[in-house]
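Morning run. Coffee first, then this:
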Amino acid sequence: MKKLITLTMALAFLAWAQVLAAKQNIPWDTKINTFSCSKQVAKLENFKGKVLLVNFFATYCPPCQVELLEFSDLYRKFNPQGLEILTFMVDQGGERVLPHLIYSKNIKYCVAIANDEILSAFDWPDILPTTFIIDQKGNIVKKYVGYAGKKELEKEILNLLKKN
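And here it is:
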């Protein structure tokens, strides 16, 4: 019985957290420490007007590695329609391993090093991976804690792109 109550409370908390996240706007003036990007990006505001997928990952996280590959597919498919992807590595000393990671996974979207300002802007997601879907106006419309799944992300992205 205690396990059922605990599980119910945990699910209620997660649902409540998603409602809060859906009402949050991202701070456009937040600076980004980009490592790999096809264009010069210094602030989140460079993504204004786009559907933005923001992800926090680590090299020691197997589901994160799967998502990085899935993001490449989503980027190829939806970037021409207005999707941008920005992933933040949270590993300490990640600058040393990022070139190999980007090359080996053939990543074309933006990869950045998470700094304190970014972690604060997104209320430091302490479970990895964590992914945010942000609409063209900067509203966080969905937050996924843990592996999100390509089909679920694709559905959300398509909904937002159709609204534009």
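The first helix runs from residue 2 to 22. Good start to the day.
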